[in-house]
Amino acid sequence: MANVATATRSIRNPVLAGFHPDPSILRLGDDYYLATSTFEWYPGVLVHHSRDLVNWRSLGGIITERRLLDLRGCGDSNGVWAPDLSYHDGQFHLVYSDVASFASGYWDPQNFLVSAEDITGPWSEPVKLHGRGFDASLFQDDDGTTWLLSMSADWRPGRDRFGGIEIQQYDLAARRLVGNPRILFTGSPAGLTEGPHLYRHDGWYWLITAEGGTSWEHQVTMARSRELFGPYQVDPDGPLLTSCGRPDLRLQKAGHGSLVRTQHGEWYLAHLVGRPYSPLGNCVLGRETAIQRVEWPSGCWPRVAGGVPADEVVAPNLPAHPWPPEPETDHFDAPELGRCWSTLRRPATADWVDLHTRPSYLRIHGGQSPVGRQSPSLVGRRVGAMECSLETVVEFEPADHRQLAGITAYYNTLNWHHLYLTRGDDGRTVLELLSSDNGRRTAYPELTVDADGVTRVGLRAVFDGPVVRFDYDLGTGWRRLPVELDATILSDEHAALIIDGEPAAWGFTGAFLGLWVQDLGAGDGVHADFDLATYREQ
């Protein structure tokens, strides 16, 4: 029964599996919302909804249009970083950072604010805020003033690039920043201070930050002050949460948290985690969202049991509220893409994503090559389990080798596996496999399959732990390509590249399974029709 409270229920982590990092949690009445980063993928800023902190459903994304964000040319793992969701005076407010770079000490961030009366929109025109740093958030003080916080970036060689947490007043009515910014907090010895959220509780201002970087040394730091502008004292007992130094834990990279208080005064912390495939190994699923219970007696510092992320925690004293399960198969009968789908670097507009011309089919018009950053044609969904698969049926008539359509296991422009239909030099339609490992492409000509004359081809990509496999069906039953591909190249750790101490590439997302159509003739007008897509987790 959806309305019966069960005291023994548990929150099982992660609550949002797969690529869902940097959670910002908000309660409004009986409703809880989680907003997460999306980087180079549309829709930007995914939002999930819960009534009990146990069961979550996707509401889709907030940033669905280029007027809110233009990701053309966006680099891998650039784009939307660390959104902040808040509510004040009848309006939801979303602050998000569009980060254009992270090379040579530069980030080129730009922060924006949009508002809406309903979580599903419509959202206002974006207010352009400052570009001095990223991970911006709003704080409404008890006196009615509103403040914008963010990390303060310092590009100067020899300086700490994470120059502290800054604060500046924001005028909600005038929709603009006022006054001058000032540094609020310079961080703990862990360093790399970012991801600020500010709370007023028990007569204190409580500042929560992410520190230690977003990998194995990640942590949630708490500091407090009697005055808004400080000074802020760091919790003398150490971080509120971290998995640093505990490679035995299932949940690693614990950090970047935000707090929420239930209707009955219970506190919980939403934060990111990673699940490596081996101790401190690659996290193919990317950075995920988990929730921990927080004990916070009056007059005391908040505490998470053991200061480490637990796989399972006691749920709040709220009525259980499960949601209907998402269907495994999308038959593409709806007028818009389902909420499980995302598109790479451009929104799912009718000029290339077509659900109307041929009812019950997804028609994808071909786009750029794998390294193209303006108009790729990739429709994907997050990999949410170590064992999972995506299966589809495609109809495609390639004219030459420049036209490709198929299924992919994808991380970024440099790391992917792709099984696709194309036309061979002899004029026959063939099924080929191509992989890219940090830009080094590997073809498998010995595995080429003759698919000439077959109008409907079944394709399946399978994640089996550290291995990716591909299957195909030409109408006579499923067959497996006899090759095992490396799934661990589709991970944050593999994508990161440091040259002379500087990040030449970074990895902040996670693996996708997707439908990919390329038109390397740049305007030949090729398209592929996908009849269905079935996603299963083992």
Summarize the structure.
Helices cover 1% and strands 47% of the residues. It has 538 residues and is mainly beta.
Short descriptors:
Tachylectin-2, Chain A; nine-stranded antiparallel β-sheet; mainly beta; 538 residues; globular; disordered N terminus; 2 domains; 43 strands; Jelly Rolls
Explain what this protein looks like in three dimensions:
By secondary structure, the protein is mainly beta. It folds into two domains: 22-237, Tachylectin-2, Chain A, CATH 2.115.10.20; 329-537, Jelly Rolls (Sandwich). Helix content is 1%, strand content 47%. It contains one helix and 43 strands. Strands 4, 26, 29, 31, 32, 33, 34, 35 and 42 form a nine-stranded antiparallel β-sheet that branches. Strand 13 (162-171) and strand 14 form a beta hairpin. The chain is globular and about 75 Å long.
Secondary structure layout:
Layout: E1 10-12, E2 24-28, E3 31-36, E4 41-42, E5 44-50, E6 57-63, E7 79-88, E8 91-99, E9 109-116, E10 127-128, E11 137-140, E12 146-153, E13 162-171, E14 176-185, E15 194-201, E16 204-211, E17 219-225, E18 233-234, E19 241-242, E20 252-261, E21 267-274, E22 287-295, E23 303-304, E24 312-314, E25 329-330, E26 342-344, E27 353-354, E28 362-365, E29 378-382, E30 387-395, E31 403-412, E32 415-423, E33 429-437, E34 440-443, E35 449-450, E36 457-464, E37 467-473, E38 478-480, E39 485-486, H1 492-495, E40 497-499, E41 502-505, E42 512-519, E43 527-537
